[in-house]
Structures are given as structure tokens and as C-alpha cells.
Amino acid sequence: MRSTRRAASSVLFTCLVLAGCSPTSLGGSSSSSGASGGGSPAAGGAGTGAQGGSSGRAIAVGAGPQKTYTVQQQPTAGTCHYRYLKGEPLEDPKCTPGAISPAVTQSNLKSTICRKGGYTSGIRPSTSVTGREKKLNAASYGFTGRMSDAEYDHLISLQLGGDPNDYRNLWVEPADPGHKKGSGVNNAKDPVETKLHTAVCKGTVTLAAAQKAIVTDWTTALSVLHLGG
After folding, report:
1. SS3 helix, strand, coil % of the chain, rounded to 5?
2. Whole-model pTM above 0.90?
3. Fewest CB atoms within 10 Å of the CB: 82, 94, 101, 204?
4. CB neighbours of 24 closer than 8 A, spacing ≥ 6?
5. Of 116, 98, 137, 45, which is closest to residue 217 (Cα–Cα)?
């Protein structure tokens, strides 16, 4: 009996020291959730995006600011459909789920979107690119109104770390209800973006929370984050 115990102890000691295994590998039970390849990767990991999205999935990460932008392919014509809440237009989450820029993070806000002197003008694509994309995206959504009254809008605005030219983050946003035709772009979403930006830079809400709120529903983003609205 003693010799059997000594033999088992010897095997255990050899395994632990030389092979690096744990006592549970010798017959004890253990959870496999922490094993390599087991379980689900954490949302927001490298290459997967930030937490959020209208369905709880991670928000896609785009290419970020580029020295030269090219016209991006848009969804097939007629495949995207607007939603309306109290008359306000919302994007089709299948066509425009949002995309964030990898260049903007919670840790570098002061040197990016909260930087004194502004940030967005230096990363915004030229109108020669966005003008062509706007026409293509209008066809995607079946938009037939005045193009001059519609905004080619970043779902997650640039001042909230949205990707500058990812097709998933841009959509032709129709004018608000009651908007006078021919009076140009004037959308209720714009002041929501500004209030969220202010809150992020003040540290009232996190960047990820603001991005998630506006992707989920821009009309409720402020109330969800207890910022009024």
C-alpha cells in the first residue's frame, strides 16, 4: 500500500515539475472554458470591434483615416430600407450597422476627438469621393428625394470615433419631418452627436457607451445615457 502511494506521488511530482501539468490532468475534474479554443472570445478583442451594436454584437472596425480615400462599393440598389420612429428616419441596420475607427480609443481621446482645434476636418474624405458614394447609397436605399436636402451621414459620427469612409458607417439620411424642401441639410441627429461628444470628452460617458447608444437608436441615445433628450 505504501509503495503504491509512493509511486503515485512520484508520478505526480514528475508531471508537475517536468511536464508542467496540473493535478486535475491526472484524473481530477476541471472546467474547459479557459482552455485554448474553448468558450467565446471577449467582445471588443483585437480585430473584432467595440462592444455594442443594435443587436448586441460588436461594432465593426473600419480601416480608419487614410491619406487617400477611394469610392467604396455600396449595398445593391433597392436592398436597404429606412425605418421611421415618430417620423424621424433611421438607417437599415443590415446595410448600415456602423463602423468605428481604430485610430480613436478611450485612452487617446485628448489627442483625437477631444483635441483642441478640432479633429474631424483632417480625416474627412473629400466631396469628390463622398459625392459619388452618396449617389450610389441613395440607390441602395431607394431614396428619390432632393439630394441637397439629404445628408450623407456617418451613423457613428467622426466626432464619436466613427470610421471616415467605411460603407457600413455611411447612409443617405433623409430630411426630418416638417423640413422645408430646398432649405438644405438640417437633421435632428446632428445636435445629438454634439451632446454625446461633449459628454465623452467630459468623461460623463465612455466612448464605447456613446457609440453603442447612437448605433442602437440615435433618437433615444441621449435618454438612454441619462443626458436629457
Report:
1. 35, 10, 55
2. no
3. 94
4. 30
5. 98
